[in-house]
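User: Hi! I have a protein structure encoded as tokens and I'd like to know what sequence might fold into it. I'm fairly new to this, so please keep things simple.
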């Protein structure tokens, strides 16, 4: 079934299959017809194929009197058309007696309306007021008053020159308490009195100071400005350090620190490094500066090797490890010893200079000493080996292996004995 439309005096609207059947009756019905009470249904309308089916719900022939319902084709649409006189009949208002004489047939239902001057009873017409002062005269007096006020202000004012210390061009100058303070090029006109001058300049903190203006010659006002702090980025090459500014600790480095403008005494310190003292001129005014600091180390890298390897390294009696060994020692002079269970002990004095790498070795460790046991008859004889006194018999001494040594044994009252001895 093609789509249906409902056309009645109230308008047109499409219908869906679920809208059927349509109720006919009073207010609230699908099709509202005159003469029905609200909620009353007198008939139901449905479409059966190509036919319109109307089932009356009321009794009597007058149930749908004056209502015409039919199924039509309009503009290619199937329409349920409803007609009745409840909406379409429009009645013109009655004419007053005698008014029909002035109606022109061409005007239809249009009547001319005459404009009548209406005034409530008992109200007399008031004469139009006349302005007391013409506009031009009032404007002239106002202009004269303004000129007189300007002249009086100029005569009574004092010229005030505002400068800053340090000298700079201010962004704004305000005199608090003055109702008028015209100025140009750093000069202002002020009436005598006490004021507070407020000044702003880029790179400086806002300044405020009281001023007293007297009648008479021009006056100079000098406003002291304080430079805003600056930001200083300090690079220590990644070394963790501490910053002291003007004797006050300011935090850790590397990093950025806010410093007051002017000359500042900086001290950068780090463990095992020499302190670095710096005098820095801080620009301030919110400007950012960069400072690179490289601290001098108070130590040096030390490398110790030996032949054979595996010798124990001792520095001032403190064991540091086994060869080959890489370590760090603070600047100074040390007693270095290499000890190996199968070789002779090595001893030497070494000097470590700050920041200068030191390599020791490779140290060739000698074979361990052989042992020489000396006895004499009678005992108590003095023993000298290689010209150095070594003690009295019986005596046990160590000698370098494989090297002949001259041994002299002597005692008072006896002839000395000399031997060349070589130990394994």
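Assistant: Happy to help. Inverse folding works backwards from shape to sequence: for each of the 424 positions I chose a residue that suits the local structure. Here it is:
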């Amino acid at each position: 079934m093609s789509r249906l439309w409902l056309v009645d005096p109230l308008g047109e609207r499409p219908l869906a299959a679920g809208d059927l059947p349509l109720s006919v009756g009073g207010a609230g019905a699908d099709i509202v017809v005159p003469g029905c009470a609200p909620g009353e249904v007198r008939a139901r309308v449905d479409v059966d194929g190509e036919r319109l089916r109307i089932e009356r719900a009321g009794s009597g022939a007058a149930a749908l009197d004056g209502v015409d319902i039919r199924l039509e084709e309009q503009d290619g649409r199937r329409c349920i058309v409803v007609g009745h006189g409840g909406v379409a009949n429009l009645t013109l208002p009655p004419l007053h007696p005698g008014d029909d004489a002035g109606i022109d047939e061409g005007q239809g239902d249009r009547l001319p309306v005459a404009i009548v001057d209406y005034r409530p009873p008992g109200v007399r017409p008031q004469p139009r007021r006349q302005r007391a002062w013409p506009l031009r005269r009032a404007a002239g007096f106002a202009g004269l008053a303004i000129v007189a006020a300007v002249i009086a202000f100029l005569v009574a004012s004092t010229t005030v020159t505002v400068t800053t210390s340090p000298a700079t061009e201010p962004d704004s100058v305000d005199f608090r308490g003055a109702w008028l303070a015209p100025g140009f090029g750093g000069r202002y006109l002020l009436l005598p009195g006490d004021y507070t001058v407020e000044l702003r300049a880029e790179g400086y903190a806002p300044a405020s100071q009281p001023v007293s203006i007297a009648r008479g010659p021009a006056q100079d006002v000098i406003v002291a400005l304080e430079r805003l702090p600056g930001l200083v980025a300090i690079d220590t090459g990644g070394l963790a350090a501490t910053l002291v500014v003007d004797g006050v600790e300011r935090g850790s480095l590397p990093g950025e620190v806010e410093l007051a403008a002017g000359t500042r005494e900086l001290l950068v310190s780090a463990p095992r490094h020499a302190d670095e003292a710096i005098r820095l001129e801080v620009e301030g005014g919110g400007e950012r500066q960069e400072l690179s600091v490289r601290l001098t180390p108070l130590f040096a890298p030390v490398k110790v090797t030996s032949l054979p390897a595996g010798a124990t390294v001792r520095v001032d009696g403190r064991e540091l490890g086994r060869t080959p060994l890489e370590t760090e020692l603070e600047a100074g002079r040390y007693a270095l010893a290499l000890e190996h269970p199968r070789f002779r002990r090595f001893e030497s004095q070494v000097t470590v200079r700050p920041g200068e790498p030191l390599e020791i070795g490779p140290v060739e460790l000698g074979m361990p000493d052989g042992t020489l046991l000396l006895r004499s008859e009678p005992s108590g004889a003095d023993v000298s080996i290689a010209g150095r006194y070594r003690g009295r018999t019986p005596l046990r001494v160590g000698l370098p292996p494989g090297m002949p040594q001259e041994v002299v044994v002597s005692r008072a009252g006896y002839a000395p004995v000399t031997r060349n001895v070589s130990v394994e």
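A useful reference point when you look it over: Confidence is low (pLDDT under 50) at residues 87-109. Feel free to ask if any position seems puzzling.
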